[in-house]
């Protein structure tokens, strides 16, 4: 565990959350004292999202099943941030808000990203500042599951592999993610 990193932020759409997300949480827990799993309210890349509380409930069920070296919690801070600013909520702003709320130096706060996002980090809002001001925790994609693929299969009336179901969830929890019936995060 990196003793410098007090809090690592694993933000994402989690739309739907799946076994790959759970694995990422477990990997991240080796690098910080505490992991905050933060579901997006208004995604920076414009993804249409199911209700924030609905996703947070599923994430809490997942988190309750993960036994890693760090405390893992779900944090819906983006709902509060959405009342303070218009438009997307960016990683830099999210990490800054959490550092301020927790009373931490910015380098004590890390952004958790998958190895696939390292290539696109330059597209992030204030990417140079993000890299300079905060720590990064890069995790491996070990399961090869993506929310978009789950939704694609559901839309076609097809099932997906059982190993894609996150711990704490069951296959029926994913039925709400049929793209034709998605309420938008308020």
UniProtKB/TrEMBL annotation:
Pfam families: CTP_transf_like (PF01467)
Enzyme class: transferase
A Gene Ontology BP annotation from the UniProt entry: NAD+ biosynthetic process
A single MF term (Gene Ontology): ATP binding
Pathway: Cofactor biosynthesis; NAD(+) biosynthesis; deamido-NAD(+) from nicotinate D-ribonucleotide: step 1/1
Domain Cytidyltransferase-like positions: 9-151
Catalytic activity: nicotinate beta-D-ribonucleotide + ATP + H(+) = deamido-NAD(+) + diphosphate
EC number per UniProt: 2.7.7.18
Keywords: ATP-binding, NAD, Nucleotide-binding, Nucleotidyltransferase, Pyridine nucleotide biosynthesis, Transferase
Role noted for this protein: Catalyzes the reversible adenylation of nicotinate mononucleotide (NaMN) to nicotinic acid adenine dinucleotide (NaAD).
Family: Belongs to the NadD family.
PANTHER family from the UniProt entry: NICOTINATE-NUCLEOTIDE ADENYLYLTRANSFERASE-RELATED, PHOSPHOPANTETHEINE ADENYLYLTRANSFERASE
Name by which UniProt lists this protein: nicotinate-nucleotide adenylyltransferase
Organism: Pseudomonas nitroreducens
């Amino acid at each position: 565990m990196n003793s410098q990193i007090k809090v690592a932020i694993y933000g994402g759409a989690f739309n739907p959350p799946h076994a790959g997300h759970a694995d990422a949480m477990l990997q991240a827990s080796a690098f910080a004292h505490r992991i905050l799993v933060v579901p997006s309210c208004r995604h920076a890349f414009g993804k249409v999202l199911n209700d924030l509380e609905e996703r947070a409930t599923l994430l809490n069920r997942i988190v309750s099943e993960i036994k890693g070296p760090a405390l893992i919690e779900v944090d819906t801070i983006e709902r509060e941030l959405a009342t303070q600013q218009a438009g997307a909520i960016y990683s830099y702003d999210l990490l800054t808000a959490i550092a301020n709320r927790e009373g931490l130096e910015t380098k004590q706060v890390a952004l958790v990203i998958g190895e696939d996002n390292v290539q696109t980090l330059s597209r992030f809002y204030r990417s140079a500042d993000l890299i300079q001001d905060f720590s990064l925790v890069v995790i491996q994609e070990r399961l090869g599951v993506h929310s978009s693929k789950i939704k694609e299969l559901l839309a076609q009336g097809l099932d997906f592999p059982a190993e894609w179901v996150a711990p704490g969830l069951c296959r029926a929890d994913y039925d709400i993610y049929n793209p034709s019936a998605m309420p938008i995060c308020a």
